[in-house]
Amino acid sequence: MKPQVYYPDLCRPPLCLSLTEAVVLSVAISESASVEDPEGWFQTPRGGWENATGATRKALSTARKNLVARELLDQQQRSAGTVYWRADLRRVLEAISSGRQACAAKPATVHEEPKPKVDRSLVLAMVRLWRERIGIIEYGRMGKVAKALAPEYTQDEIIAGLRRYMEAAKPTTASPEGFLRSCRVYCDPPPELAPPAPTSDQDFFRQLGITSHDQHT
Fold this sequence. Notes:
Helix content is about 50%, strand content about 5%. The protein is mainly alpha-helical. It has 2 domains: about 10-105, Winged helix-like DNA-binding domain superfamily/Winged helix DNA-binding domain (Arc Repressor Mutant, subunit A), CATH 1.10.10.10; about 120-205, no CATH class. A two-stranded antiparallel ribbon has the order 1-2. Helix 1 packs across helix 3.
């Protein structure tokens, strides 16, 4: 049994041939390149189409019709019952070349930064606080609020801000979206929680975590 040449690129874009079509065209390319006819015409592959491709007669007929319709395989009836075939190498190479050029011309894919994931424990804590104060479970809406605030605030700041918002807002007018709109008022540390301004060099170094020993080294 003589091995046959098979070109996998025929199954890939831009041609995207079926496996049977690719095998048939591969055999035709090999035959057209090896026959004595200067134009590459051949009658049947050595051993016949079925032996050369391993395909059934029906699959071969369908594959050849599709290849002829796409002008990748030429068919010529020279006499009664005699059919000659030829692979159109020019069209095959042009199609493969144009597909590679189109792929090379495509702009590079821009990879977006992954969106920060929201800790489920944060959402549950917010839902629990809201239920205790307002009496309503708002899991979906709180999840959206947490997702919007997570990139800018820590979990402790969000929980503390929500607590201050619920203490200031009326239960009838409070809403997760209202907390989101006023997040800078309630999530930013209030002035009374900010560290006091240093009154001396020692206070300044102490706030920076520098000990008296470190000052002299």
